[in-house]
Amino acid sequence: MSTQPSTPLAVGVGGFGAVGRTVAGRLDGAGIPGLRLAAVSARDVARAEAAVARFHRPVPVLALADLAGVADVVVECAPAALLREVAEPALRAGRKLVVISVGALLAAPDLVELARAHGGQIIVPSGAILGLDAVTAAAEGEIRSVRMVTRKPVRGLEGAPYLRERGISLEGLREPVRVFEGSARDGAAGFPANVNVAAALGLAGIGPEQTRLEIWADPTLTRNTHRIEVEADSVSFSMTIENVPSEENPRTGRITALSVLAALRKLTSPLRIGT
Fold first, then answer.
1. What is the reported pLDDT for 185?
2. Taking the domain 132-243, which CATH number applies?
3. For the chain, which residues make up each domain, given as ranges?
4. pTM of the full predicted structure?
5. Which region among 157-161, 246-250, 267-271 has the lowest average model confidence (pLDDT)?
6. How far is 201 from 43, CA to CA, in rounded Å?
7. HEC profile for the chain?
């Protein structure tokens, strides 16, 4: 018996930047069995309308809050500050909400309660975290420690609130410099466009307060690099991943959009790999 619904699930894409355009374009083009693109949302409505007009199946450009009215699944890929604008209507309507602004989710635990109260579900894709499945599995036992070291090209960290508030300039940097050391929660707050990976790691494992994070600005790098070390009663492991930054947005890795697509595919696939 097929697990794919007879009627495709409608997907609304909230945000039309580097990630949103990739996700919407794939859903419209090659497509994912059991899913269909229903609508997108964008700050630049005219630009988005011109883009979707070239789709095989053009869709409307709606306000973030209106996506829940036309979609079974809402994908949040907007700036972190807009998470509530897309999340609250979707969860009140009992929709599935795919979130990439995981750092903002740490500051909004009530959204989990909102999902529980209305039968919705928040889905956090693995994104740039290699082995997130292993962390969630280890969390079923006892995890003793989780440490993550993130190294990014200077362009990927410029403009972060943590740096602005402390008057830290990365201009002319010639060698790697550690710009942050602390909890994943504090790191996600100070670098909201940079370390959603750390927030996801915190939620998957021992919590964002206990997850330790270092962030380095490294002018010698061209890729975002994350090293994770986990010690648990069931397993000890370390892993390193190098993500190719998006050409349009150096703060986001190319794998982010692909991870969203993989998470969407799992919703209807007759074979699901990974926990």
1. 94
2. 3.30.360.10
3. 9-127+255-268, 132-243
4. 0.90
5. 246-250
6. 29
7. CCCCCCCCEEEEEECCCHHHHHHHHHHHCCCCCCEEEEEEECCCHHHHHHHHCCCCCCCCECCHHHHHHCCCEEEECCCHHHHHHHHHHHHHCCCEEEECCHHHHHCCCHHHHHHHHHCCEEECCCCCCCCHHHHHHHCCCCEEEEEEEEEECHHHCCCCHHHHHCCCCCCCCCCCEEEEEEEHHHHHHHCCCCCHHHHHHHHHCCCCCCCEEEEEECCCCCCEEEEEEEEECCCEEEEEEEECECCCCCCCECHHHHHHHHHHHHHHCCCCCCC
Distance from CA of residue 104 to its chain's centroid? 10
Span 39-66, average pLDDT: 96
Residue indicated by tokens 């074979």: 271
The tokens describing 230, both together, are 């986990």
Q: Read off the pLDDT of each residue in 132-160 and give the average, rounded to a whole number.
A: 93
Is-catalytic flag, 226?
yes
Q: How far is CA 181 from the centre of its chain?
A: 22
CATH, range 9-127+255-268: 3.40.50.720
For residues 32 and 8, give the distance between their C-alpha atoms in angstroms, rounded to a whole number.
Answer: 10
Q: How many CB atoms lie within 10 A of CB 96?
A: 21
Residue 242: how many CA atoms within 13 Å on its side-chain side? 4
* pLDDT level of residue 250 (50, 70, 90 thresholds): low
pLDDT band at 2 (very low <50, low <70, confident <90, very high): very low
Candidate list 95, 212, 226, 251, residue with the active-site label: 226
| Token code pair at residue 30 | 């090659």
User: What span, in angstroms and rounded, lies between the C-alpha atoms of 103 and 105?
Assistant: 5
Percent of the chain with pLDDT over 90: 79
